[in-house]
Design a protein that fits this description.
The complex is a heterodimer of chains A (598) and B (398). Chain A is mainly alpha-helical. Chain A contains 26 helices and six strands. Chain A has a two-stranded antiparallel sheet with strand order 1-4. In chain A, strands 2-3 form a two-stranded antiparallel sheet. The C terminus of chain A is likely disordered. In chain B, 43% of the residues lie in helices and 19% in strands. Chain B is globular and about 65 Å long. Classes of the chains: A mainly alpha (598), B alpha/beta (398).
């Protein structure tokens, strides 16, 4: 409703379940059980409200996706915190008093608790409907959903309105988690299990439609239940296939309506992008030279880490091209990264091709994937676009995961090592550096090419750009393909760096990593992704090696960076430069660019 | 940030240099999914810590201190390769050990082959580890998928049940466990009929639907491979809907404390399972381990504890027998290495680098509100491996 892309919803669901577990263990009896569940949900709702006040309010002015980044940081932290508090073992809560048994319906035993939930679902739906349609608060919320600024202009304190909506959402999430304890085990990975399903449900139903979400939830669970009986082999894909079909036929979900035109911030046009000046070019070139000289004094491990960071620089740069220049935020960019990696693996394993051939042919898989998926995706925009890219990525992932005969399934494909001339870490580092530098340069040149301008025009105003003869879909499709191909190149390099390819390479975590890198670097900059990738990946690898609480610290750092630099690191530096000395770039900025080249 | 990256890199270089300067220690690299799967890896870590303490109390290895450098892989194969690289290139470890997930084990095994480092896999179960993807540098401690399925198939063949259903997570582990179980059981009992197969997605089981589908096929017995949260849901739904009444369930790994304990008083009764009944083992070797473990950690051991303990004991035994930390010498020493363990003597087979560590087979029961294994028998792994000729066919010979 508030258009907050809340990644932390799954975390609240999980905390609700954990808290309810503790409370129902402490409080005895029927009242203890149900009271415990309600108290748990209420406590989590208060935590959610606090989070909204302390964290999210600060960044409403930042680009929308920043909320995703902030809540992603929170999610990372919560995963480690629950293990710290509740220990690593799966916990199994009590059964609901009075609902332990089963009821016989048409010869089948149906658990009584399931029947209770069947009643509870529509009740909550009804209450929500009443709340939104019969109270003043509900009217205000619906108004704010349609036009936030207008409601604020009419004198409604929208801050508290949002806080209350957010708290209500969190309350329901925690209640959902708490109600799971008589059926499910409470574990520290349950947030990820639920969050993707929830996004899918909301999108199939249509944003802003509670009824739609309810209906979609029924469809999704029926698919899960029957899909497994009828198509056991594709059970993982089925839900995403349905989502893809729904979005292709009804671009705004089953019950959604076209989004009202949002007032886009004018920040973009105030300081137009411009190509590097001569001095900056020299600085970048020097930076590349410095990077190229690293193998002379760094050890093998540092060089391999350097190669990995460079690979993600290219991956983030390709996603950045699509997100910033094209205005298309993809949640499934890892698909093309992974397809590239699998492309290389197929070349090596099935055709016995040498590394050089695989390097050329591998990205073609990413390209083909992008051509195919992109054609569907560019028909949508905004969150729906993001979700369709996610659906396609999940479909690709499921195929890699379940088609064991060809892809090796979960066990992946092994033995994808570089040719002997590139097998030394230093040689491979130079190879990666060369490819990545050329790749990032090409992407940058594209930004300032006529194609890049057309793309930016289509992003800023579809109507006006179409009026001057720019075909939005074709331009965006082309951008999608470009980004997918470069992600594919990054994927091929990654496969040879690691020596193996796994379905993980197509998975949601890599897509999310890419988003985080772009956002950290600064979404409204030309080359922020490069800096974001270097910072995030170096930090992640270093923390992983130094501590087991890496998620906690990484999450905290992400949250801090979001609050400190709402425009991203490079965005912040550029602001600084323009505020202080409008004419000549200060040293700090050059340093950033040097790093950018690395 | 530039400087901080540089500082970090410099620190790494420095650490490498220091590692070389203090060459008095023998360093073992260890990788596991500490943040991804703490329920198993925490007891596992305690296990190897105990082993390291014992090894050093007995004078170390080759007169030097035995040190373990441990890294987290976060449950991702790519990160495991990064960690392996750090251990080998910058920490200067003499061998790699550990890993839990099959895909991570395979990724590290492939890395070991490429970099010519010995890798002692602790936990991954996939048969590919020592057979289809086996290599000269990789050894494995735990009884494989095949071995445990074979133990259960032997028990299953004694049952009168004729109509069998299977429930397994839909990925390589579940698929290969079911394939081996079906093949071995059908070979022993040609009269058996497989009435239904259920393949819930790992971690996302819709237990109600699975239970209904199995019940509809009216099997006499069920073979289950699910574990963790999926198992909890399956047990609860099945109990409520009466699926396990008058049916025998044969279940892989369910007797391991990691999976049995969370079920508390709802643990199923009478299931035939593989596992680790630490509470009922009465051998002097196991008593000594149990006492030492409880004294150090004030906690009872899980299966992970014994795996971690044996991993480092085996690593030390390999180096001691080789008399050197040269990889080729260590491989030669490890092939055919025999050692005593709290569970019984084991041998690392030269033919496929698989240890003959076995598992306990028994029935589940509920005692004092907790799930336990009763009537347990230790099955020596050596008896549940295919013939040498078959292994030679399965494993690339080089």
């Amino acid at each position: 409703m508030t258009r907050i892309v809340n990644f932390a919803h799954g975390a609240f669901y999980m905390v609700g379940a954990y808290l309810a577990f503790t409370l129902t263990e402490r409080l005895a009896g029927t009242w203890g059980f149900w009271g415990g569940i309600l108290i748990a949900a209420a406590v989590v709702a208060v935590l959610g409200a606090l989070l909204e006040i302390v964290l999210l309010r600060r960044i409403y002015r930042a680009p929308e996706l920043f909320q995703l980044l902030a809540t992603f940081g929170v999610t990372l932290m919560v995963q480690d915190i629950v293990v710290l508090i509740w220990g690593p073992e799966d916990l199994m809560g009590r059964r609901a008093p009075g609902f332990r048994g089963a009821v016989e319906i048409m010869g089948q035993l149906v658990p009584a608790y399931d029947l209770l939930l069947i009643v509870l679902g529509p009740t909550v739906l009804g209450l929500l409907w009443l709340l939104f349609h019969r109270t003043r608060w509900g009217v205000l919320v619906r108004a704010a959903t349609q036009d936030r600024d207008m409601v604020a202009a009419l004198g409604v304190n929208q801050k508290w309105l949002f806080t209350s909506v957010f708290a209500l959402g969190v309350f329901l999430a925690a209640l959902g988690g708490a109600l799971q304890i008589p059926r499910d085990a409470v574990s520290h990975s349950m947030d990820l299990r639920i969050i993707v399903d929830v996004f899918v449900v909301v999108v199939i139903g249509g944003l802003g439609s509670v009824t739609g979400a309810f209906l979609a939830a029924i469809i999704v669970s029926e698919l899960n239940a029957f899909g497994i009986l009828i198509f056991p082999k594709i059970s993982l894909v089925l839900v995403f296939l349905v989502m893809a079909v729904v979005l292709v036929i009804r671009p705004y979900g089953l019950f959604g309506k076209a989004e009202g035109a949002q007032r886009t911030s004018l920040g973009l046009s105030i300081r137009p992008w411009r190509p590097f000046t001569q001095a900056e070019r020299i600085a970048v070139g020097a930076g590349v030279l410095v990077a190229a000289s690293l193998p002379l004094f760094l050890g093998n491990y540092a060089l391999t880490v350097g190669s990995e960071i460079l690979v993600f620089v290219l991956f983030a740069a390709s996603l950045h091209f699509m997100m910033t220049v094209g205005g298309l935020a993809s949640f499934g960019h890892a698909a093309y990264f992974g397809l590239g990696a699998y492309g290389a693996a197929f070349m090596v394993k099935l055709f016995g091709a040498p590394m050089e051939v695989a390097l050329l042919m591998g990205p073609l898989m990413g390209l083909v994937g992008a051509v195919l998926f992109g054609w569907f995706c560019v028909r949508l925009s905004g969150v729906y676009f993001a979700m369709l890219t996610l659906a396609f990525a999940q479909i690709a992932w499921s195929i890699a995961f379940q088609w064991v005969e060809v892809t090796g399934g979960d066990n992946g494909m092994l033995g994808i090592w570089p040719a002997s001339w590139a097998s030394k870490p230093a040689a491979f580092f130079w190879l990666v550096l060369g490819v990545v530098t050329v790749g990032v340069c090409i992407l940058r040149v594209l930004v300032f090419s006529p194609f890049g301008f057309a793309l930016r025009a289509a992003r800023d105003s579809t109507l006006r750009s179409e009026a001057i003869g720019i075909d939005r879909r074709n331009v965006q499709w082309a951008a999608f393909i470009v980004a997918g191909t470069f992600a594919g190149i990054a994927g091929v390099l990654f496969a040879f760096l690691k020596g193996s390819v796994f379905p993980d390479n197509l998975g949601i975590p890599i897509s999310v990593d890419g988003l985080v890198m772009v956002l950290l670097g600064g979404i409204e900059t030309v080359s922020g992704a490069v800096v974001g990738a270097v910072v995030y990946k170096a930090l992640a690898i270093w923390l992983m090696s130094q501590t087991e609480m890496s998620k906690l610290i990484l999450g905290a750092v992400v949250v801090l960076l979001v609050v400190a630099f709402p425009k991203g690191i490079v965005g912040f530096l550029e602001d600084l430069r323009h505020r202080r000395r409008p004419a000549s770039p200060p040293a700090g900025f050059k340093a950033a660019k040097v790093e950018a080249a690395e | 940030m530039k400087t901080s990256v540089k500082v970090a890199l410099a620190a790494l270089v420095l650490a490498t240099g220091m590692g070389r300067a203090m060459a008095q220690d023998i360093k073992i690299g260890e990788i596991n999914s500490y943040s991804g799967l703490p329920a198993f890896t925490e007891p596992y870590r305690k296990g190897w810590q105990l082993a390291v303490e014992e090894i050093n109390a007995a004078g170390g290895v080759l007169g030097k201190k035995f040190v373990v450098v441990s890294k987290d892989d976060g449950g991702k194969p790519a990160d495991a390769v990064t960690a392996a690289n750090e251990l080998v290139s910058s920490e200067g470890v003499v061998m790699l050990t550990g890993t839990f997930f099959s895909n991570i084990g395979l990724a590290v095994a492939d890395y070991a082959k490429q970099k010519k480092v010995l890798f002692l896999a602790a936990e991954p179960l996939t048969d590919a580890m020592t057979w289809s993807q086996g290599n000269k540098y990789t050894f494995r401690l735990r009884p494989s998928n095949y071995m445990q399925a074979a133990m259960l198939a032997e028990e299953a063949a004694k049952l009168p049940a004729k109509r069998w259903a299977t429930i397994a997570p839909n990925y390589e582990y579940g698929q290969s466990a079911v394939a081996v179980f079906k093949q071995l059981l059908s070979a022993k009992r040609p009269d058996i009929e497989w009435v239904t197969e259920q393949w819930p997605p790992q971690g996302k089981i819709d237990a109600g639907a699975v239970v209904q589908a199995v019940a509809a096929a009216k099997p006499d017995a069920i073979f289950n491979v699910t574990f963790g949260p999926d198992l909890v849901k399956l047990v609860r739904e099945g109990n409520t809907r009466g699926l396990y009444k008058d049916r025998v369930v044969v279940s892989l790994l369910t007797g391991e404390p990691e999976y049995l304990d969370p079920l508390k008083d709802e643990a199923p009764e009478g299931w035939i399972v593989t596992g680790y009944p630490w509470y009922s083992l009465k051998t002097p070797e196991h008593d000594a381990f149990l006492k030492a473990y409880q004294a150090k950690f004030n906690d009872y051991p899980r299966l992970g504890s014994i795996v971690g303990y044996l991993t480092m004991k085996a690593a030390a035994a390999i180096i001691t027998k080789a008399g050197s930390t040269d990889t080729d010498k260590m491989i030669a020493a490890a092939e055919g290495l025999s050692m005593g363990t709290p569970l019984g003597p084991i041998v690392f087979r030269a033919i496929d680098h698989q240890s003959t560590l076995g598992a306990f087979v028994g029935k589940t029961a509920v005692k004092d509100g907790k799930g336990v294994m009763v009537d347990t028998v230790y099955r020596d792994g050596a008896a549940y491996l295919p013939s040498d000729a078959e292994v030679k066919k399965l494993r690339p010979q080089n």
